Amino acid sequence: MSKNNNNTYRKRKNWTKKNQKKEEEVVKEEKKKQKILRRKKRQKEREELGEKAPPKLVQITQEMTRLPDLTTVVPNDPEVLFSEKTDEMSEYFDKKKKPKICFTTTGNTKVRSPDLIKDLIQCFGNSTFFARRNYKIPEIVEYCNNRKYTDIMIISECNKKINGLIHIHLPIGPTAHYKLSSVVTRSQMKHVPKKFVQYRPELIFKNFSTRLGHTVTRMLNSLMPHNPQYKGRRLLVFHNQRDFVFFRHYRYKFESKEKTSLSEIGPQFTLKLRTVQLGTWDTNHGEYIWYYRSKMGSSRLKWFL
Amino acid sequence: MRIFVGDRLGIIKCVSIENTSVSFVNLKPNRNKEIIEMDFIDQNETQLIAGSANGIVDIYDLNKFEITKSINTNIDSVFSFKYLKSSNRVIVCNKKGDVKIQSLEEQIVEEEEEEKEKEKNFQEYKANTPIATFSVDRAQQTLYSCGGKDNLIKVWDINTGKNVFSCQNLPLDDLGLRIPIWDRSHDWKHNSDNTFVVGTSYGGIRIFDTRVKKAPVKSRDILEFPVNKVTNSIDENYTFIGDTTGRTFKVDLRKIQSVNSYRESVGSIRGMSEHHSGDYLGICGLDRFLIVYDLKLVKSMMKVYLKTQMNCCLFSKQGFNTKVETEKKNKKKNQVTNDSESDDEVSGSSSSAEENSSSEQSTSSSSGDEDDSSENSEGSSDDIDRYWNSLGVINDEESDLVSDESDEQKKGEKVTQKKKRRRKKK
């Protein structure tokens, strides 16, 4: 008797699971049909009315319902303009200095980071790679200042994955600490040219609206030389959405007067800001301009860049 | 109430708390002229003195917002600045250790008597190692103290220049190692010549007493990040501490434990000042925000965005607190009158006064930065009219300011009229 009861119990379980799935599929198909019927109604009404038709419906996204920020920059603000004229990065914008970059790693890592560094040296010009042999970071800052470098980039790695990025602006300037994720190097991409002529590219920054965003764009601007060559048709894009910064490297081509096409060269990765410091890199005794904490104003619609 | 704020670009701003309006005292920015500290000259607060990183000291007239005097002390890269009220002199300090005292009065100099008058006006001293902190006695202003990295704090006399007191380190560790030294900020207690509180850059707090012994009386490590600013409150037993990442704490000095924490600012803290009644605290730092806290409710009253990085702030003693006191009295009346109106509201709370007050506080905490007064003052209309009319008699007798308070009373009446209309529509 017990065995018969067990068999019937199992049969009923599987029977209910299958029927549940069937019922859910039927409900989904009905919803789709009704959605298509509503759309056709609206199209008919718009054709009939012509110019007097009501405007199209817009989907409500999270970016539309973002909490308003107090620190958004209003154009032509005299205080902001003066403070940016006499900034630490103002010498680059006055065309007095040219960038010179130094790449290193944390520890003696050899697994994944040399691939990224090769691509970045080809992307930015006028840069060299040095191996890290138990030097401390304040010593590295001294040696680079003596040889007139302008920027230091340090890439960190853990468990065969690339972790983070430290960007130090010399001689006094601010440092920024990012978190790297979803890195794709050129060897992993298809249909990528092996070599390309290094004309000076053009830089594009999208959707940085607050005061913090302005300082970050000024720091990233000082990596490339100031006057681009439009003959080379190269682009570097930093796109910001919901506090994530996406980096892409394109080359464009005009097929006709109305159409253009993009082809991707170079690596791609995403950044997220962690801290911004006043002086050079010092975790023990330094002062912070912005420090990220996970419980800081906990709401999904509050972003800082 | 008013607060004065000094920038890193050389601009001084004046913020009023009731209106949340900003007005400029100085209009010409200059990157070399960072403002380091400010102080009032009179008790009536008509003149303001400010020291900058050039070595130039300015005196401002607050009725007209103009500069009346500027004095040049020939020191580059000034680190700290203090004003001595009793003898009308100014102390200026350098990072290397040069200390200079100069008087503010003008004197006619003749060619023969130049050397004698130089001895009266200028006094220079030298410390041996680089300086990270500097402050002056609060009771009688006859002592100054300075210290830095690998350099314990020492106390000197102003007039003679001799050493009065020097500190001593703690005894050795459990492993037999020496404890490292880096004094980053210190402050003397109110109305005392004897005790001062020191904050180190390893996150610890020490208390010293010159009458008892050279080693610290109490010491303990609290924080993970270095302590950037220490100010003593008017109570003898409490201090306020500022971090380099933006956190501030209120610390009990008998046990060295934190009692309250204020966590709204994001950058390192460089200026703190307390109101003379002991109820409000103003904080400014590198993240370009000015925040004022209410100390009894432990909540933020006001958060203003000023567009540059700030160095120092000052509370003014003038100003009769009309709006704040009337709102506190309105709360007590509203707790009594809300019993009859609770059934009409949509939230549908019960008739006890405690639950109404708790629900009001929960709504106010969810909305963060707005004032508590705007949400709690929903009492009956007749009682509010009688209260405002009765207040008009009291305020005219006791106030000294001319135009600010009359405007505030008119605004208070306008607020009640708007809320009458809202309730009629419902």
From TrEMBL, chain A:
Residue numbers spanned by region Disordered: 1-53
Naturally occurring in which organism (per UniProt): Anaeramoeba flamelloides
Biased composition (Basic and acidic residues): 21-32, 44-53
Taxonomic placement: Eukaryota, Metamonada, Anaeramoebidae, Anaeramoeba
SUPFAM superfamilies in alphabetical order: Class II aaRS ABD-related
Classification via InterPro entries: Brix (IPR007109), IMP4/RPF1 (IPR044281)
Name assigned to this protein: Ribosome production factor 1
Amino acid composition bias (Basic residues), ranges on this chain: 9-20, 33-43
Residues annotated as domain Brix: 99-282
From TrEMBL, chain B:
Annotated keywords: Coiled coil, WD repeat
Region (Disordered): 325-426
Gene Ontology CC entries for this record: nucleolus; preribosome, large subunit precursor
SMART domains on file: WD40 (SM00320)
Amino acid composition bias (Acidic residues), ranges on this chain: 395-407
SUPFAM superfamilies the record matches: WD40 repeat-like (SSF50978)
InterPro entries reported for this sequence: WD40/YVTN_repeat-like_dom_sf (IPR015943), WD40_repeat_dom_sf (IPR036322), WD40_rpt (IPR001680), WDR74/Nsa1 (IPR037379)
Bias kind Basic residues: ranges: 417-426
Gene Ontology terms: biological process: ribosomal large subunit biogenesis
Protein's UniProt keywords contain Signal: no
Start and stop residues of the WD repeats: 147-166
Key word Glycoprotein present: no
Low complexity: compositionally biased ranges: 347-367
Coiled coil: 94-128
PANTHER family attached to this UniProt entry: NOP SEVEN ASSOCIATED PROTEIN 1, WD REPEAT-CONTAINING PROTEIN 74
Listed name of the protein: Wd repeat-containing protein
Protein's organism: Anaeramoeba flamelloides
Lineage of origin: Eukaryota, Metamonada, Anaeramoebidae, Anaeramoeba
